[in-house]
C-alpha cells in the first residue's frame, strides 16, 4: 500500500517534470522567434517552469528542467554548440545556480519573485561573462547596468507568474490521490 503510494508520487513528479521541460522548450523556441533589439535578449518566460520545478521539487529538478530546455532547445533550433547556445548555457547555468543557492540558503523567505530576480541577474551576469570571453572586448560590460535593470523587471514578472502557477498546481496536486 505504502509502496504504491510512493510509486504514484514518483510517477506524478516525473510526469510533471517532463511536462515542465517540454513547455520550457516550447516557450524557449517561441521566444527565439520573437524580434529583439539584441539577438540574445529575451524575457526568459521559460524560466517560470524552472522556478516551479525548484519550488515544488528542489534544486535537482530545477537543474533538470533548465539544462533540458537549453540543450534540447538548442538542438531543436539548430543553435547547438553555436555562440548563441553557449550564451544561453552560461546564462542558464548562472541563473539556476543563483536560484538553487538562494532557495537553499533563504528557504521560503525570498519567495518566487526574489528568487526569480536573483536568477535573472545571474543570467545576465553569466551571459555577459561568456560574451566578454567570446568577444574579448571590455565594452561588453557597458551593457551590464541597463541589462540588469531589464533583468529585475523580467525577473519580477516571471516570479509573479511562477507564483500564480504554483498556487494553481499546489491546489490541483493536493486534490489528486
TrEMBL record:
It holds the Pfam family Hpre_diP_synt_I. InterPro entries: Hpre_diP_synt_I, Hpre_diP_synth_I. The keyword Nucleus does not apply. Coiled coil: none annotated. Keywords: Membrane, Transmembrane, Transmembrane helix. The chain crosses the membrane at residues 39-57, 113-135, 147-166. This is Heptaprenyl diphosphate synthase component I. It comes from Syntrophotalea acetylenica.
